Amino acid sequence: MATAAGGSSADNDTECSVCHELFKNPKLLPCAHVLCRHCLLSWLASNPEALCPLCRGAIADTKEKSRTKGWKEVVDALPDDVAMAALVESTRVLSQDHVCVVCQSAAVSICLTCNDIMCKPCGQAHTKYSVTRDHKMDDLSSMTAEELAASQPDHCSVHTSKPCELFCPTHGAAICHLCASAKHRACPDLTELAEAADKSREELSQMVTSLLTEEQQLEEAVAALERHLEATEKVMQEAVAEIDMTCDKLENSVKECRRRLKNMTLDAKAKVKDTVLAVKVTLLDHRGRLTSHRRVADRTTRGATNKIMCDVTRALRNRVKDILVTCGQLSVDWKSVSTVTLTIDVAAVTRIEKELSALGHMEVKPVSIGTRQVRRMLFMNQYGQLIDLPHQS
């Protein structure tokens, strides 16, 4: 596991949530959370249900686990978070002591090509040597990890000394001119890496916009459910109060009726609450996936090289499409979210009122609702629904 040499980026984005150190070989989970490869293997070894330790989302489905010989194959099949790896390296460089690598005096600048930090005289000399005269120096005090990561040169993964200047859509790889003439000669539509990166940047920006929009809609839906639950709680409190008032007037002859009404009311409340909470959990789960993928896309857009941006775009493209399709199909079925009202059979009310009035045990007071004078009684039907059915006086 990586050891943090100093502070990490904002919100500890570069720290693994398992080992709490800088990421080493970060892996991108299906839920868009990131863990060190070694931490992920250790987690899966002790938690074979293969759920993310942060959101309990599935890391691998049952079919995928049955096809592999062990967790190593599952973990290695997950995409590398190359944008996070670059950000971690930049964080490590900036968190080290600001001492010139040449003369050991206080460093004030950093080479964006070789990541060496230097004092002013050594930095000036660095740009005059024939080997390093093309290197660009920048102010160390104002440099951020994202800026440093985005400024790194793109080198070919095959010819490491050659810069990546082309992009092969057929193989989805950033390549140098030597690779283009040797291995990609038959590949059509070779484009400039900068042009491919611009398209990836635009696609990632659209991903961020779409994910943010869906995230906000889910948040609004969750807030609406919470308001509905609060309203239900208020109605139930009023219902219980009315039941108490009514049953107190019925004396001992209706104590058993009062007990049953309360129990049925609480059961109805539990059903409404369970329904709302179940929908809320689903929405929160999808919102978490939207947020995680949006943060990955946003972070990559703000602090990644062209090559890394293309790699991350390829890793996220289909997954984000699937997430957006799923979120587009989500909606709150308000018909399934029960509302609560109270009623009592009118004939039964009339009969009970007459019997109790004859005994002097009930006094019915009219209540004004609009222009009508009504009497309200509380009752719950056999389906667990509380209904308010005013009786015209």
Q: Runs with pLDDT <50, length 5+?
A: 1-11, 359-393
- Tell me the strand percentage band: 5-15%
How many β strands by DSSP? 13
Q: What is the ordering of alpha helices and beta strands?
A: EEHHHHEEHEHEEHEHHHHEEEEE
Class by alpha and beta content: mainly alpha
The geometry reads as elongated
GO molecular function, one term: zinc ion binding
Keywords: Coiled coil, Metal-binding, Zinc, Zinc-finger
Pfam family, one: ANCHR-like_BBOX
What's this, in brief?
This protein is mainly α.
Supply database-style keywords.
three-stranded antiparallel β-sheet; single chain; mainly alpha; 393 residues; Herpes Virus-1; disordered N terminus; disordered C terminus
